[in-house]
User: What shape does this take?
Amino acid sequence: MNIGIVKALVVKEAKQIKRDMSSVVVAFVMPLMLLFIFGYGVSFNIENIRVDLVRQDSGKIAHDLADSYVHSKYFNVNVVTSTQEAKGNMESGKTQGTVIIPECFSKNIQKGLKSEIQIVSDGTDPNTASYIESYAAGVFAHYLSSLKKAVSPVINVIQRLWFNPTTESINFLMSGTLTMILAIVGTFLTSLVVAKEWEKGTMEAMIATPISIVEIIVSKLIPYFLLSVVSFIVALSYGIFVFKMPFEGSIFAVSLVTSIFITVSLLIGLLISTSAKNQFVAAMGAVLVTFMPTNMLSGFIFEIKSMPDWLQCLTLIFPARYFVSSIRTLCLVGDVWEIILKDVAILLSMSLLLFMALKKKLRKHVE
Assistant: This one.
């Protein structure tokens, strides 16, 4: 490989990027839009759920428990006088659940007898229903633990939540968003830009020259690699300083895994553009192989272990799965090299296979 030729081609690509601002839009505007959408619009932390509270007991303990629900950040409580009224509110969609404090609740607590409350939730939305049940039960358990009679003098349970102590969904959503940004930006940059060259005929002209296939591939990778790196740095900084996303890993570790994942994404884009040679087809191909798998099959939103076995096997072919694993570990846990090196090895293998496939594909066109 002639370094001088590669340098000249890289300079040519840089000038082309400067003239065509669409690459800058893809590299910087799109990531900020994704960060904004996932940072502010997507959250698994549900608050202010509309529920009715029916207090059939007028005792002080029941009154204090009712206050616990009223002042909870998870619920927007409407106190009603009867279960029939609460049922009507749920049927009309005004509320999503009902908490019922039964009669003799306070007396049973004072006597040390078994005391229960009833939690009714709207099952038309199973996710919200499960949140209502768990949050309402949590408020009830917390209140009981505050009562002296409900606290055991022998056993004391101390709870600790590791890696994401605030339980904020934004902390793991942002790490997944970084994966989506790199996958989409890297693939779109090379697929759209190179497809445009195929449409204009400049790519065929370059292949027809004595320039080797490796030199062409490397010259296409370098400028867009640097652009993707800057895009990632901006996105990571935005997540840390604006959304307060934790980052426990080292610069070396994140640089290693990010560099390889960017290379994989760029090679996928080049392979798509080489096969499609049309900007519209290349854009659709980039969406199919990056956006959808990153959202659904990478562990970004849905837990892979909860998927059917055949679908878990299918996720193994998508690079985003391995980058999600590493970047989430780096953000929330730190440098766990057992995980990082495994993901790096798989991504590196993918990059080599993609490079060989691309080289073979371009050589066919030379012939």
